[in-house]
Amino acid sequence: MRLGRRILYYLIGVVLGTFMVMFIFGDRDIQCSYFPNDRVLYDLRKKEMKLESGITAEDTTGLGNALHRANVNFKRTIKEDVPCNVYFLEFEELAKTFVIENCDSIATLQKVEDLSLD
């Protein structure tokens, strides 16, 4: 079999395989990031966000962007002896730190602090 014909058969197989995979797995929300920061942000994004009393609409400016691009400060994270984990999302673009309590079915924005770069 000539080289040109082999390449043609290979490309036909790749195209058919690609269409088959797209047909079977088409509209799924598949995320391939397993880093701890990305997993925490993804978990917070899929939950209902509740605001603690005293939080104003001005304080929540940039929260949507922070849930996509913020850095989770795991040194300040509170995970022990509490029913819900408390995460500190540091969003450098707005110089804010969002303190979010993450429970099983709901996430609560507890307070918003100015980001102190120590």
Task: Spell out the blueprint of helices and strands.
Elements: H1 3-25, H2 36-45, E1 48-51, H3 63-69, E2 71-72, E3 85-91, E4 96-102, E5 106-114
Parallel strand pairs: 1-5
Antiparallel strand pairs: 2-3, 3-4, 4-5
Helix pairs in contact: 2-3
Kindly summarize this structure in a few lines:
The protein is α+β, with helices and mostly antiparallel strands. The chain has helices spanning 3-25, 36-45, 63-69, and strands spanning 48-51, 71-72, 85-91, 96-102, 106-114.
Features:
single chain; elongated; five-stranded mixed beta sheet
| Number of separate domains | 2
- Number of H/I helices: 3
Order of helices and strands: HHEHEEEE
Quickly give the structural class.
alpha+beta
Based on CA inertia axes, which overall geometry fits?
Answer: elongated
Strand order of the largest sheet: 1-5-4-3-2
Please state the average pLDDT score. Answer: 89
Biggest β-sheet description: 5 strands, mixed
Q: In total, how many beta strands?
A: 5
Cα radius of gyration in angstroms: 22 Å
Q: Which strand-content bin applies to the residues?
A: 15-25%
| End-to-end distance | 67 Å
**Fraction of residues in H or I helices:** 25-40%
Contiguous uncertain segments of 5+ residues = none
